[in-house]
Amino acid sequence: MKKSRSVLLAIGAFLLANLKWILGILKFSKFGTTIISMGITLWAYAAFYGWKFAVALVYLIFVHEMGHVIAAKRKGIATSPAVFIPFAGAFIAMKDMPRDAKTEAYLAYGGPLAGMIAFLPALPLYWYTQDPFWGLVIYLGAMLNLFNLLPISPLDGGRIVSVLSTKIWFIGLAGLGVMLFANPGPITVFIFIIGLITWYNRLRGSYQQKLLQYEREKIADFQQSIAKWPALESTWDIRMQMNAEVNAINQEDLKKFYVPFLQDKKRLQRDFKRLDKVYVNRKWELFRLWEREPVLYYDSDPNRPIPSDALRDGERAAQERLGELDEQMHQLTTYYDAPASTKWKVLAAYLGLAAVLSVFFVYAQQILHR
């Protein structure tokens, strides 16, 4: 073991000494990040568990992530290269978000399915050699992908069952809570916290819809107001009005805490006031900027003023925010909608894969205990 670690340290020292030219080569490669992070992860696992275990584990994780990449490519969704994190796994980032939960479930399912296929060659290898190492490969593959099928967001299982009902996330959280009680670990704690936040946000969906709708109304009022400014003969009255509004709302105490669910009416009114404050101040800042902006005319014709850059920028920012609000509203209202036929197919595929992986998991345990 000491000799093995000495070799690993020597290799690590060599790589660090030559890191500059290695990075220089890899940075031109689309998969440079994947190769570097995979190498670091491989070295880290090998330092603690040996090369055979490290290669098997990194291989299983890599194929799992490639399953997501292939599924995303089939749906026309661009992804980043896979990034490995020692003792935490790997991840890919989607450059485009799925249009609905059905598509997201398809992308999520690709990982565990590919992960299962990855360890299937270990079956004939074990039958032929009777080497328990291949049993370990089966065990690792089945365990990793079964864990990923837990119905908790952000795990694959949580993203798959979201087509059925996001209420299932609570069942997954309860199951993971039992696992944490029996065998606590930093990764499972992290997943539990993220899952809890995601589940809570979903529960607050109707509350968020009210806020989004109110902000849409504030933006509409903002757009109507700035559209009238160029036609004003005098800005004095509107300046005095907005100045009074800004002073009044900035003096209000909007930091009071209200208990979610139990005090939602008061909480909602407070959050409405916060949005009022944001858009009153935004409109006031834009007005002051517009007032100081020189008025230009086409061909020096006083009847043909050139549109204000400040107002155009304000309108553009408002439109961009409206697009973001529409996307969030879609996420809350129709994103998780799916026909019954789709739900049945997803349920069958999910339970079927979980059942097959469970069989392999039990079989691998029997191999390792012989």
Automatic annotation (TrEMBL):
The keyword Phosphoprotein does not apply. Coiled coil: none annotated. Residues 53-126, 132-167 form the Peptidase M50 domain. One of its GO terms (cellular component) is membrane. GO terms for biological process: proteolysis. It is a multi-pass membrane protein. One of its GO terms (molecular function) is metal ion binding. InterPro entries: Peptidase_M50. Keywords: Hydrolase, Membrane, Metal-binding, Metalloprotease, Protease, Transmembrane, Transmembrane helix, Zinc. It holds the Pfam family Peptidase_M50. PANTHER family: MEMBRANE-ASSOCIATED ZINC METALLOPROTEASE M50B (PTHR39188), STAGE IV SPORULATION PROTEIN FB (PTHR39188:SF3). This is Site-2 protease family protein. It comes from Brevibacillus formosus.
